Amino acid sequence: xxxxxxxxxxxxxxxxxxxxxxxxxxxxxxxxxxxxxxxxxxxxxxxxxxxxxxxxxxxxxxxxxxxxxxxxxxxxxxxxxxxxxxxxxxxxxxxxxxxxxxxxxxxxxxxxxxxxxxxxxxxxxxxxxxxxxxxxxxxxxxxxxxxxxxxxxxxxxxxxxxxxxxxxxxxxxxxxxxxxxxxxxxxxxxxxxxxxxxxxxxxxxxxxxxxxxxxxxxxxxxxxxxxxxxxxxxxxxxxxxxxxxxxxxxxxxxxxxxxxxxxxxxxxxxxxxxxxxxxxxxxxxxxxxxxxxxxxxxxxxxxxxxxxxxxxxxxxxxxxxxxxxxxxxxxxxxxxxxxxxxxxxxxxxxxxxxxxxxxxxxxxxxxxxxxxxxxxxxxxxxxxxxxxxxxxxxxxxxxxxxxxxxxxxxxxxxxxxxxxxxxxxxxxxxxxxxxxxxxxxxxxxxxxxxxxxxxxxxxxxxxxxxxxxxxxxxxxxxxxxxxxxxxxxxxxxxxxxxxxxxxxxxxxxxxxxxxxxxxxxxxxxxxxxxxxxxxxxxxxxxxxxxxxxxxxxxxxxxxxxxxxxxxxxxxxxxxxxxxxxxxxxxxxxxxxxxxxxxxxxxxxxxxxxxxxxxxxxxxxxxxxxxxxxxxxxxxxxxxxxxxxxxxxxxxxxxxxxxxxxxxxxxxxx
Length: 669
Ligand code: IVH
Fold this sequence. Notes:
Blueprint: H1 6-27, H2 36-53, E1 75-77, E2 87-88, H3 91-104, E3 112-119, E4 122-129, E5 132-138, E6 144-146, H4 149-153, E7 170-179, H5 181-194, H6 202-210, H7 215-220, E8 223-234, H8 241-250, E9 260-263, H9 265-278, E10 286-293, H10 296-302, E11 304-305, E12 308-309, E13 312-316, E14 320-333, E15 338-350, E16 353-359, H11 363-369, E17 376-381, E18 388-392, E19 417-419, E20 426-428, H12 434-445, H13 457-465, H14 480-484, H15 491-504, E21 506-508, H16 509-515, H17 523-532, H18 544-548, H19 555-565, H20 568-579, E22 583-585, E23 603-607, H21 614-623, E24 627-629, E25 638-641, H22 647-655, E26 658-660, H23 662-668
Parallel strand pairs: 2-13, 21-22, 23-24, 23-25, 25-26
Antiparallel strand pairs: 1-6, 3-9, 3-10, 4-5, 4-7, 7-8, 10-13, 11-12, 14-15, 14-17, 15-16, 15-20, 17-18, 19-20
Bound molecules: 2-(butylsulfanyl)adenosine.
């Protein structure tokens, strides 16, 4: 770098500075000063100079284009945990929040609060060192997230460098990455065309876009950012949320729309009403308003309870509703044969999102609400759930509406249909029902299971219809040549799928068990089994009793597992998978055999903030033979109390439960 002419250096620096400024005008302020062509011209010039002189500044806009795909995301521990928010579902509950704050602070005076929209996106932490974006990580479980720096850099509103005169040594800035509603809908239309499943809501779309190992895909999604919080910080102090927000704005960070500083609860309610009223005109999805105590000293005094600060709350807007007509109801067959009625609706915009389908759950629900084909219905979309029918507008009936009865035969394979034990669900009993088989294969390949990228619903359907896979075992016998025969595959896509299949052969016992689609075995139960069985063979011919003996395993689950592992066909399938090269490791197995179980028979409840994440402490207790419970009762032997312990501590004292610290717990081990 030494032999770069001074004037070139200067020119590169000026170009970076100017381009970053224009990027900020365009993406943060939404008010550009120059034409796009002019920006592109300067950008190209910068790129040429950078390449010619090999002189690239860390905050150069050319660093936003994405990087070579990653194998996996590295884990990142947050220096300060990323908390969640308590909810208030009515204005009265917001007033109760204010009452609690005042009581805890022992004041009758009006408190200063900031009020802003709650974005339906993904929480992120941006770490800046000496003013340069050093790392971006997802919230994860609040304590540990994933390093998504290259992806975040592709978001144009994310400053690569902090502007202004007050640059802290190090700062963690928290905010929400989100996608605009229009962009969300365009993305879903494109996905449906490609045969990929649509995202259920903007939040999932943002999360799916950020969690891309190939950042060039993230770069194509138009993501935004709103910054609202501060984590660990060195070299600068802020007295209040508002002071911090003002600093953020000067440093060119995007902050929440309509954010306001007010005093007293009446003014808070006014702003909430304003946000709610403007909500449907926002380009983004807001599912509520966030209210925070402004003064940082007061925030500190109020502290946190478990994982939610006492100084903030989220007021949740009532769900969006819309009125539309049911054009058709179809019976859809899932992987275990369960038949679910799904309503196809006259498209309607609800809270900025186009809705054309709604689950009717089951026939009890249809009967209870008396839902018929042709009915006018009220449909509700609450934050992130799939829309559902709230009620039928019976006054609109013409007499032509038709009842939708449960099918006697499977609509897909024609096999008999049986009512489930519980009596609510109907199930196709056909073992070879193509809908079930395809869904089982899709489940086997899905992200949380064997994680075979590129083997989504549409490709499963294609491979199945061409007779290439009739069972998930067949996936491991697919050849590239087979794929090349198919309309949707070319050299590269075929190779990618073959590579993904190969990669999936190395998996964990928990994932493998989940992918088998054993009834009642979700991700959690699969993990629980993996913790208790060193290897797959340990489960062969297992009895129900042995599974029930595992804490938290229910009877139905145990029966289902035992039935699965005593079926000769299933055992044959497992052996075939192994012979085809599937290799299973089990990092989840906890060796308790031969070890002391010092907490055997004792029940613990955890409260307050401990030095280690709660789930980790709970695991430790279970690992040592104890039981971790969620609430204090007479049966509780010990309450492990951390900082800011609240009502559980009070209750434990009342009941005379022994109270110990985290350190004392460790000593017991
Ligand atoms: S403040 C303790 N402000 O809501 C402070 N969160 O339920 C916690 N969110 O994980 C965050 N908009 O993902 C805050 N204006 C906003 C927000 C917001 C969306 C999300 C965020 C957080 C979750 C908590």
